[in-house]
Amino acid sequence: MTDALAVDVLLGNPDVRIIVCCGSGGVGKTTTAAALGVRAAAQGRRVVVLTIDPARRLAQAMGLPELDNVPRRVADVGADGGSLDAMMLDMKRTFDDVVIAAASPDKAKQILENPFYAALSSSFAGTQEYMAMEKLGQLHAEAEKTGSYDLIVVDTPPSRSALDFLDAPKRLSSFLDGRLIRFLAAPARGPLKLLSSGMGFVTSALTKVLGAQVLTDVQTFMSALDTTFGGFRERAERTYRLLQESRTAFLVVAAPEPDALREASFFVDRLRRDAMPLAGLVLNRVALPLAPALSAERSLSAAESLEESGQHPEAAAVLRLHGERMRLAAREHRLADRFASAHPGVPVARVPALPSDVHDLAGLRDIGDRLAS
């Protein structure tokens, strides 16, 4: 039998300073992260929840008018000195802050005003995940310095793959360190003279493909970024090492569906391979029938008899609904058992499916209760 995930023990452990909620998109990571933050604050922790969810459900649920790159205090949450702040990653602003901190004022101005930088910082694949790592590093450094927080809860980006969060720093570094980009970053004698007159044919070809102005923007950006690039890689590696420490705990969040559990399985394997601390699995939206003693077969058979007789249509509808729910629960149970067989020893917290979305603090507290029960 799979062990139950001791959520309150995890939240109450002062040595755990970072909880990362990860998994594929649409499985309830944002709600889980928010509910964990609310429950941890009630236990006396000073918590900040960092979400990267573009839908603004978290702000609404926490009673805030909006969330942005600055932590905002959530009212009426916390006990025994506990508190809860929440924020939403602003990818462009975080990238801007990194450039401003790493470069001289003149160099930063040159980068921030560059058209190629504007495109890279707002739409390049992997930038959101990379900036999530940057922001996590910033929050941790601030918490260590000022004591403002003793727990950071991270809701990872709604990526196509759950692994993008861990791979993004390496991908962005590879892009910025690629041969073509480094070639474009080489010192130029004039806007389009690359390395030497012997490379003129390369310049001419690139100009035809990219256009003269685009090529100039790329060259200018890379030349300006060259002096600050080492900081990008260093910080990414430092945050990556932080994720491997015992003060970090990963919670893999999934729904009882084949695709979501397959992603969860990949992520568990990756965490173990990279020696990252896995706390357990949160299985959201689990079907829990109210009368499990009544089997699906008996319920559906009784419903069919009532429907054929034309008597008690309401009872027939309830019996059919129960039978279908029992079948769904059995299917989900088989999927969960398959995951447990592939990953023995991973504790699981099961959260029942709710009739509606969470939209306020009371709903988040309810989710927290269900996580810990």
Write up what this structure looks like.
Helix content is 55%, strand content 12%. It has 373 residues and is α/β, with parallel strands linked by helices. It has a domain at 7-109 and 125-168 and 243-291 and 330-372: P-loop containing nucleotide triphosphate hydrolases (Rossmann fold). Strands 3-4-2-5-1-6-7-8 form an eight-stranded mixed sheet, with helices on both faces. The longest helix is centred in the last third of the chain and has 30 residues, at 313-342. Mean pLDDT is 81; it is low at 188-203 and 205-211.
Q: Report the portion of residues in β strands.
A: 5-15%
What about the largest sheet? 8 strands, mixed
Indicate the mean pLDDT.
81
User: If strands are numbered along the chain, what order do they take across the biggest sheet?
Assistant: 3-4-2-5-1-6-7-8
User: Which CATH class of the domain at 7-109 and 125-168 and 243-291 and 330-372 applies here?
Assistant: Alpha Beta
Question: Into which percent range does the helicity of residues fall?
Answer: 40-55%
Keywords:
single chain, 373 residues, alpha/beta, Rossmann fold, 8-stranded mixed beta sheet, 16 helices, 8 strands, ArsA family ATPase, ATPase_ArsA/GET3, ArsA/GET3_ATPase-like
Task: Provide a brief overview of the structure.
With about 375 residues, this protein is of the alpha/beta class. It is built from 16 helices and eight strands. It has an eight-stranded mixed β-sheet with strand order 3-4-2-5-1-6-7-8, sandwiched between helices.
Strands, helices and their partners?
Layout: H1 7-12, E1 18-22, H2 29-42, E2 46-51, H3 57-61, E3 72-73, E4 83-88, H4 91-102, H5 105-112, H6 115-123, H7 127-146, E5 151-155, H8 164-176, H9 179-184, H10 200-210, H11 212-225, H12 229-243, E6 248-254, H13 258-273, E7 278-286, H14 296-309, H15 313-342, E8 348-352, H16 361-372
Parallel strand pairs: 1-5, 1-6, 2-4, 2-5, 6-7, 7-8
Antiparallel strand pairs: 3-4
Helix pairs in contact: 2-16, 4-5, 4-7, 5-11, 7-8, 7-12, 8-12, 10-11, 13-15, 14-15
Domain ArsA/GET3 Anion-transporting ATPase-like: 17-288
Pfam family, one: ArsA_ATPase
Protein name: ArsA family ATPase
